[in-house]
Amino acid sequence: EVQLVESGGGLVQAGGSLRVSCAASGFSFDDYVIGWFRQAPGKEREGVSCITSDGSTYYGDSVKGRFTVSKDNAKNTVTLQMNSLKPEDTAVYYCGADLTCSWHGAYVYRGQGTQVTVSS
Q: What's the average model confidence in pLDDT over 81-102?
């Protein structure tokens, strides 16, 4: 059974940092792109970042320079380190897996999400 489980969300003040993680199982982790996307109430899904099987990383314009994605193939986990958080980063953050990055959250496998709230 494919599973993607996010963890690490929470409440933080603007300017602070949070780290969210995605634990994957049930598929060939090394062969897949793992991406992060988010959705705020009343807004469309927005791609945040993705990391490819060879470790190449990509970021959306709104988070570039503030967020860093990394993966641990031994533990089948992907981590998104979020720094200099802004209130507009408030959303439910999801991880997804597929053969390519998606900037619309259209991943064949997706987790249930974790809430990130940034207070002003």
A: 97
